[in-house]
From TrEMBL:
Gene Ontology MF term list: hydrolase activity
Pfam families: Hydantoinase_A
Descriptive protein name: Hydantoinase A/oxoprolinase domain-containing protein
Limits of the Hydantoinase A/oxoprolinase domain: 15-124
Source species taxonomy: Eukaryota, Fungi, Dikarya, Basidiomycota, Agaricomycotina
Record InterPro entries: ATPase_NBD, Hydantoinase_A, Oxoprolinase-like
């Protein structure tokens, strides 16, 4: 979160004008998870509620409010045959750190989110000939599933960010008058 603040110049290291006074949603898509949180106008992450559960233990530590979902480059793409055609799901299970061994583009036999974006031509990694047989229907349904997952996690944060920006705007108007 603080790295994103630095890259967006929200950390006070330089003149910051484009997002001044607004919260910003940060989304980090990794190998096994996608993490999303809100940077406040100060450049610091929104803090979580008083009690956070870590590994099933309730704690009262101050920490960033970051939501995580099981979507990453190693997320498994599963195709299920239905009466109406193929249904596709993505994640939450993943090949994890074995991506370069298990994903099709690297010679493995597991269809992953990485394979889908390579087959779609969005990304060039591994050997794209290994995913040339993935149908355009499966590619599109996989991309739609990924999009839905991302929209859900961003919407959760966007609703909070919108409420926060409205409150800041009201406070700014009050202080100016």
């Amino acid at each position: 979160m603080r790295g994103a603040a630095f890259l967006a110049r929200m950390d006070g290291s330089s003149e910051f004008t484009s997002h001044q006074g607004k919260s910003t949603i940060v989304v980090d898509i990794g190998g096994t998870t996608t993490d999303a949180g809100v940077l406040l106008p100060s450049g610091f992450p929104r803090q979580a509620a008083a009690f956070i559960e870590i590994g099933g233990v309730r704690t009262n530590f101050s920490m960033a409010d970051v939501q995580s979902i099981g979507l990453g480059g190693g997320s498994r793409v599963k195709i299920h045959q239905t009466e109406t055609g193929d249904a596709v799901t993505v994640g939450p299970d993943s090949v994890g750190h074995n991506l370069t061994r298990d994903a099709k583009v690297f010679g493995g036999d597991v269809l992953t989110a990485t394979d889908v974006v390579v087959a779609d031509g969005t990304v060039e990694i591994g050997e794209n000939v290994r995913v040339a047989d993935i149908s355009s229907d499966v590619i599109q349904k996989s991309r739609d599933a990924i999009k839905r997952l991302l929209e859900r996690i961003v919407d959760k944060n966007e609703n909070f960010s919108r409420r926060c920006n409205a409150a800041l705007s009201r406070r700014w108007k009050y202080h100016r008058s």
